[in-house]
Design brief:
The protein is 57% helix and 9% strand. It has 612 residues and is α/β, with parallel strands linked by helices. The two termini are 45 Å apart.
Length: 612
């Protein structure tokens, strides 16, 4: 019977996504579907699954790995001050400020709702209610934002930061709550040891992890072994100091994230978690619920809609805060999405039951209310969300040097999917070309301090088109130091003894000069007469885009939604050109070189270039 229960759970984990795909059920998150399947297989209906010791152990591992992967989802770059497209300081309501203000309001409203429940006699534990109502399902939020391609946009970043706080703060509060109610309040300070251990592991494994990257991991899988070592080290320390094991798992995820694992490593960890352990946790959670008992109890039955409404009301005030920057429709949509909760609710209820501070009926009511938020909130978000104007982000290109070469290029690019800025230190050139191009700025000089003040390095592409080659060398070196993503520098005359150009090229600077370009163009005209026509045609052209959007990674070229409008001639991957075929798989950071109608190119670049 022991093995039979596990077999049934594993079969259910296999069949659930297959059935959802077969009947095109996309509005319900997979985690919620697995809980519902567990309810059907467990005590509530069929009673086919017995909660054996081995099944409970696998379920515990599932929640630990789920929280670990949640820790890996935290993007700490979002907590840094950000600048707008034109390099100016962020707007009054930046994503970070909006998220902090929103989550502060969530905590206040959650506490108020907990107090009202105690006042009415429906639920007596104010602190536990505050923790539960202030949680946000980070995994569900990320899935919804990824589907809408919002992770790289202001609205998506705001929602994501709010959701991240909705996991970090309740998790810390749960640790303190468990220590106070479990009789370990005197040892609460020992929780700091977990954070100290996490810092030590991070510092100690930085160099080791770089060494791991150089070793063949085909049979050793050192990156995965390191991840599980981090998990169980911090989980063990957490349990020894009287804290909850999920806090250790969460910190292990953060440490792993800061070690900057490769996409392959992240995919393998996600596969292990969501492929085996996490479905077992969700299905057994549903199997533990006894709806017959819950629905037979009139008081418990009343709690389900009340808790559901409280989950929604706790996230109501952020709508007004989001409205300060976004449209009312998107603000309301954001409020519904942040009301989604399940990930941390389940382990919180498990801790509360272990401490005997909540009844089985109350726990079941909370679970069902949380399940309802996961069903309805993402659907309402998808119905209400509409793209904002600022979502249509153009590639920022900054030219240093205005002359007969750079001005025509800037004029052509400004008509497409580019935001152009031009900087010059020559008053004569400024007077000559100011009327021929938009956003031309005259600077007193081209020193590093002046350029930083003008935000010249806050750009996606920096084009150094100055006529003085020494200036271009100096600016290229500075741009590398400022970590500009792409630097294109012009050097017309080259001294064979001067190796500065080769050094810059090795550092990633893209170097061009008219002589080499003319030779290449003449050769192409001889070998491929249509090349020049293709490059100068007003209706079609040759383009290149880098695939940043993870949505398209791992897909075949023939499955691209816009493949009929373009012809992909080459794929540039890891320094080599690849001849594409219909069944060629795309990888993240691939450079697709293609031809197509100019009117279709901006949308294709937007879709493929989204960073999420």
């Amino acid at each position: 019977m022991v093995q039979l229960s596990l077999l049934i759970v594993l079969l259910a984990a296999l069949m659930t996504p297959l059935v959802m795909a077969r009947f095109k059920i996309s509005v319900v998150p997979t985690a919620v579907a697995e809980i519902i399947v567990g309810i059907i297989l467990g005590k509530s209906l069929l009673n086919w699954v017995s909660l054996t010791a081995s099944l409970n152990q696998l379920s515990t591992l599932g929640v630990i790995i789920l929280i670990f992967l949640s820790g890996m989802e935290i993007d700490f770059d979002l907590f840094k001050p950000q600048k707008n497209l034109n390099g100016t300081p962020p707007a009054k309501w930046s994503p970070l400020k909006l998220a902090i203000s929103s989550y502060a309001s969530i905590l206040l409203v959650a506490g108020l709702l907990g107090w009202l429940l105690q006042l009415t006699g429906l639920f007596s534990d104010i602190l536990l209610a505050t923790i539960l109502f202030s949680t946000v399902a980070l995994g569900v939020v990320i899935a919804a934002l990824t589907e809408k391609e919002l992770l790289s946009k202001a609205l998506g970043q705001t929602i994501l930061l709010t959701a991240a706080l909705g996991e970090i703060i309740p998790l810390l509060a749960l640790t303190a709550y468990a220590a106070l109610n479990g009789g370990h309040s005197a040892r609460l300070w020992l929780v700091l040891l977990i954070f100290l251990a996490a810092i030590i592991l991070l510092m100690r494994f930085r160099s080791i992890y770089r060494f791991f990257a150089k070793i063949d991991k085909t049979t050793t899988q050192l990156d995965i072994r390191l991840a599980f070592f981090l998990i169980f080290t911090l989980v063990t320390i957490a349990e020894q100091v009287g804290a909850e094991n999920i806090l250790g798992a969460f910190l292990a995820g953060i440490v792993m994230k800061l070690l900057q694992p490769s996409k392959v490593t992240r995919d393998k960890l996600t596969s292990i978690g969501y492929g085996f352990f996490i479905p077992i946790f969700f299905i057994t959670t549903g199997a533990k619920l006894n709806l017959r008992t819950l629905l037979a109890d009139r008081d418990s039955l009343i709690l389900i809609p009340i808790f559901f409404i409280c989950f929604l009301l706790a996230k109501a005030v952020p709508v007004l805060i989001f409205r300060q920057r976004f449209t009312m429709k998107n603000a309301i949509a954001s409020g519904f999405l942040t009301s989604t909760t399940i990930t941390l609710v389940l382990p919180t209820l498990q801790v509360a039951q272990n401490l005997h501070v909540i009844t089985t009926q109350q726990s079941g009511a909370f679970v069902l209310a949380a399940v309802l938020t996961c069903i309805f909130s993402p659907i309402i978000f998808n119905q209400l969300y509409h793209p904002e104007k600022e979502d249509l982000v153009k590639t920022r290109v900054t030219f240093i040097g205005t002359n007969i070469l750079t001005i025509p290029v800037a004029q052509r690019l400004s008509q497409g999917w580019y935001d152009i800025r031009m900087l010059t230190d020559q008053p004569k050139n400024y007077r000559t070309y100011n009327s021929e191009a938009n956003n031309v700025t005259l600077l007193p000089d081209l020193t590093e301090a002046t350029l930083q003040k003008a935000d010249a390095f806050t750009t996606d592409i920096l084009v150094l088109g100055h006529l003085d080659h020494d200036v271009n060398v100096r600016l290229a070196t500075t741009a590398i130091k400022q970590q500009v993503p792409r630097v294109i520098a012009r050097f017309e005359a080259r001294d064979v003894a001067d190796d500065r150009y080769d050094v810059l090229a090795e550092q990633g600077v893209e170097i061009y000069n008219s002589f080499d370009i003319n030779i290449s163009m003449l050769r192409e005209m001889i070998e491929s007469p249509s090349t020049l026509k293709l490059l100068t045609d007003n209706d079609a052209g040759l383009y290149e885009v880098t695939v940043h959007n993870r949505r398209f990674a791992g897909r075949e070229l023939q499955s691209l939604p816009f493949i009929e409008n373009i012809t992909i001639s080459r794929i540039y991957r890891n320094g080599h050109f690849i001849a594409p075929h219909g069944d060629t798989f795309i990888e993240q950071d691939d450079h697709l070189i293609f031809t197509g109608d100019k009117s279709a190119v901006p949308e294709i670049r937007r879709l493929l270039g989204i960073r999420n």
